[in-house]
Sequence to fold (162 residues):
Amino acid sequence: MSSTPLVSVIMGSKSDWETMKHACDTLAQFGIAHDKRVCSAHRTPEAATEFARTAKERGVKIIIAAAGGAAHLAGVVAAHTPLPVLGVPMKGWALDGLDSLLSTVQMPGGIPVATFAIGKAGAINAALFAVATLGLADAGLAAKLDEFRASQTEKILAETLP
Ligand code: RP5
Fold:
């Protein structure tokens, strides 16, 4: 794995890690260099904007941003970088993540955030989407994704019910 992170995974709180570790595990499974950090649009606004402003010059290609509740992190980051930002809404504590989903997905036209499912599925799929995107310019990585999907299909087809 190269040491320069191609994907940065950020989250609004350490409490998001239990979910977002699934994104990092998926990236690691494909050998994609990535980093991870807590970075809040509300509690560390300067750090969040500084992170976003400098991401491209650090060599990052894709940002995965997770937050819960009034989940502004992905949108704030997207406002400060031209890099693709993949938003993952966290399940949260009050509204089962519907609040996070709506505040991540409902970006006004002009600054996009590609928003994934709430929670673990979104974390995994954001990482797989990053793999697919990086695979456009990396045939080896694209082949690994093909293998992953074929093996997933085989596994499901082999399943039996009691
Ligand atoms: C958001 O608030 C975080 O992304 C997290 O999902 C939520 C709750 O954070 P904690 O109060 O657990 O730190 O900013």
In short: The mean pLDDT is 97. Residues 139 and 145 are 10 Å apart (CA to CA).
